[in-house]
Write a structure and sequence with these properties.
With about 140 residues, the chain is of the alpha+beta class. The chain has 1 helix and 10 strands; from the N terminus they run αββββββββββ.
Length: about 140
């Protein structure tokens, strides 16, 4: 009797472990791959842009800095634009804590962070591709107010 019970217990234990492992694996799901991006800059410290490009060269967003007003664009303004409906957002950062973000919005979407800054002041600017806790950021570049 003891051997039968021992085999049954071992079989039950092994079956439970396999079933539990299968449930945990099925529940985990496959994380979607983060986009492979590169960053391309243009402009000077007064008006500056960091483009976010997919690996195939297609622009999926950008961060812009505007030192002075241009048309309807305000001055001392940071803008983040997301043009790809891929679930990732674009965040533009300025070293003084100013952030423009498209996080949580459907593309296409542009967010602005504005406010007067002391004339001639220097700041660093960068852009990040974001989703949940994922973040892939560009290098930092100097801009001026």
């Amino acid at each position: 009797m003891r051997n039968k019970f021992g085999r049954a217990a071992t079989t039950l234990f092994a079956t439970t472990v396999l079933a539990l492992g299968g449930t945990l694996t099925a529940g985990a799901g496959t994380a979607s791959a983060a986009p492979s991006v590169t960053f391309k800059t243009s402009g000077s410290g007064g008006d500056f842009q960091i483009m976010v490009l997919r690996s195939d060269g297609v622009a999926i967003g950008y961060a812009n800095w505007y030192q002075d007003p241009v048309g309807s664009q305000p001055g001392d303004a940071l803008a983040a634009h997301d043009s790809a409906a891929d679930g990732y957002g674009i965040e533009a950062h300025l070293s003084n804590g100013r952030v423009a973000t498209t996080r949580g919005h459907n593309a296409p979407y542009t967010d602005w962070a504005t406010g007067d800054l002391p004339e001639g002041s220097k700041y660093t600017m960068w852009v990040c591709v974001v989703k949940d806790t994922y973040s892939n950021c560009s290098s930092k570049y100097t801009v001026s107010a």
